Amino acid sequence: MNHRSALFALHFGALFFGLAGVFGKLANASAVVIVLGRAAFAVVALIVFLGASRRGWQRLEGADWGRLIGAGGLLAAHWVSFFIAVKMAGVAVATLGFASFPAFTVVLEGLVFRERIRGHEIMLVLLVSVGLVLVTPTFDLASQATNGLLWAMFSGLTFAVLSLVNRAGGSRVPPVQAALCQNAVVALCLLPAAWPQLPAVSALDWWWIGLLGVFCTGLAHSLFVASLAVIKARTAAVVFALEPVYGIAFAWAIFREAPTVQMLLGGVLILVAIVMSTQSKKPAPAGTTQAL
């Protein structure tokens, strides 16, 4: 893979991650069922990728399994809360609410790792805060849009915690193997809650969930990891800042979720904050943290 093809792979990966909310909205199933199906299909896709790449399975120690199980639980909470937000407030609001995770990461890193919060990081938190205020037309807990945004912010919070767990654990486990294990944990965690609902899921809904798992999780993650063999992780992080843009654009085209000028302004501020976050810190080990 040369630099140009790696860049294309990276953009396609970001595009597929951005489509996650769209497929989640198209599927007429609960958030728990959607995430269970997504994780199960992703496991199959990642096993195929591992087989095609002929990479051996690295033996894991007890500490590795403990971290992967904990990360899988956080990933389940992250995805379920995100799809609840999609159902309640739409793809655009859910995507922008989730995009608040850099602000949570800055604050949590300062608390957990006792790192001093620098001036530009304070600016990052302020940009995200103002952006979220603009994204929400009115703050009313009786409003589905407001509650959806709160669920999306919780999704961002759990994603930030997941990033810190992976940072603390280092990068001993190969990225694709880590993603496979975490998705398997997600599926096992949600199976008891989703099982009674599975008979009511239609074939069309399984189709959308399958696309979500194979393309927006397994393939997107594999493209991301493969591109990092050629492209710097910092460059990849900037490209993946386009993920919310792709998601909002598809929601606009498919569901006619036309964002207001105020929402667009809020989205721009949040996206600026995301790019700032990729420039301010060394990225986490590639592939150990999954996005949408």
Characterization of this structure:
It is a single chain. By secondary structure, the protein is an all-alpha fold. The chain has one domain (3-280). Helix content is 76%, strand content 0%. It contains 13 helices and no strands. The radius of gyration is 18 Å and the shape is globular. 53% of the residues are buried. Mean pLDDT is 83; it is low at 283-287.
Low-confidence stretches: 283-287
Order of helices and strands: HHHHHHHHHHHHH
Shape: globular
Radius of gyration (CA) equals: 18 Å
Q: What oligomerization state is this entry in?
A: single chain
Task: Reconstruct the topology from this structure.
Elements: H1 3-18, H2 20-26, H3 31-53, H4 62-89, H5 91-98, H6 101-112, H7 119-135, H8 144-169, H9 175-194, H10 203-227, H11 233-240, H12 243-255, H13 261-280
Helix pairs in contact: 1-10, 1-12, 2-4, 2-10, 3-4, 3-9, 3-10, 4-5, 4-8, 4-9, 5-8, 5-12, 6-7, 6-8, 7-13
